[in-house]
Amino acid sequence: MGYLRKVIVMAKSIAAKVLSGEQVDEAPLKEIFSDEDKNHILSQLNDKTALKTYQKTRSDLNNDRAEQWKKLESLSVKKPKVLTLRFLGRLAAVFIGLVALSGYLFYQISADSNADVQIPEDVITLELEDGTIKVIDPEKGNKITNAKGEVIGVQNKDSISYKTASAEEKLAYNVLKVPYGKKFLISLSDGTSVHLNAGTSLRYPIKFLKGHKREVFLDGEAYFNVAKDKQHPFLINTGKLNIEVLGTKFNISSYEEDPQVNTVVVSGLVKVYDDTSDNSDLVTPGRMASWDRLTESTIVTETELDLHVGWIEGKLVFRRTTFGAMIKKLERFYDVEITSTNEALNETVFSASFDLNIESIDQVLNYISKNYPFTYTKNQNGITIN
């Protein structure tokens, strides 16, 4: 990623945090700024008075755009006493201005077109029942509130737990989206836990209600540990395919770009059926139901559990998998675009396992190249394999 693009992406990400009332941390700033400039930026953006001004500006933008821009400008371009004499000091001031401009544009565009806030693609987001979108920082904690300001859940770093005693009396949904390169854990109001893999979206009620089935909507991959409740079956909707359980542990991979939806059972019993057929398949532990999107048919086979649930612990396991099929998983886990023009390599079959907690994408590719020699180049657009 080019230097200027990195600065702009960082400014947009920080603007989203500032406008949602979150504290700005120093980690990303260390990559670009000196300690002196970094501290100046943090003092400006984390100033409580400044944050209140940003929040008020957000709600007032529709009333007087020009006047609000002046407020943002005056807030952001406070002259540093000595730093303005140096280039990096001026760069720090300009960066603060970029943050303010990003925040202004987010909400100006939203007000003009009623579109969703334009938030960077590389952050975890939570969409509340009223359409508000919050950026979730997996390094921090926060309370999750509904449109009335009532606390419905608590975020503890890379997990969110919803309250079982919520006062909600009607179904209200949240949507959590996890980008490539990240994972997240949700504990639903009934005690069900859901591990979300990279590139996954889950829509779910903030509270399951008596008399209603427990239904969630999945796009991507997730591992479910469903709390038992015989009176309220748990249903996962992945589009045309539905998975119904009472209480069990299983993994579903339902990425839209993949040709199959795979349901792997770790414990308990799962029923799989689609919207176009009266037939259903029961899946027992150690078996996988593969539903083909093209033929809309299901095949149940035995499988190795580690191949499908290892990602929860940061392990990526392949068994007799073509390199072409491996690429997509590597892209999701490492948040990088990989292009291979080596057709022979793409058809070559590999068996391997990688620990994503300690192995970089370069280490993975270098390991594979020892078994099948190839070269690759990296640039701001991703990786190209020759």
Automatic annotation (TrEMBL):
GO terms for molecular function: sigma factor antagonist activity. The chain crosses the membrane at residues 87-107. Keywords: Membrane, Transmembrane, Transmembrane helix. Residues 315-385 form the Protein FecR C-terminal domain. The keyword Transmembrane applies. Residues 180-271 form the FecR protein domain. It comes from the Bacteria. This is FecR family protein. It comes from Kriegella aquimaris.
